[in-house]
Design goal:
mainly alpha; about 0% strand
Amino acid sequence: MITGIEAILAAIVYLIGGAFILFIYEAYTHTHQRNLLMLAIGMFILIFGSNFDVLSGLVLSDYVEDSTARVIALLIEIPGILIMLYSAIRS
């Protein structure tokens, strides 16, 4: 069961994370450094995955259990972190 405060906080995370991603992407458009593009993609995946359990609790509560949603969230976050790590190592 997702409470109202969890939904509000998830929306705030999406808004702040989206703004951060836009700043990174804008830096990519000015410099055309592919590592910035990869960083933006990794950050998008990480932010989406970090709140997947809340999002699935709001939208898919009849179909996905809480523990399954948390596992899926972690499985989404791991590639995002790896993409950001690769971006940092590659630069």
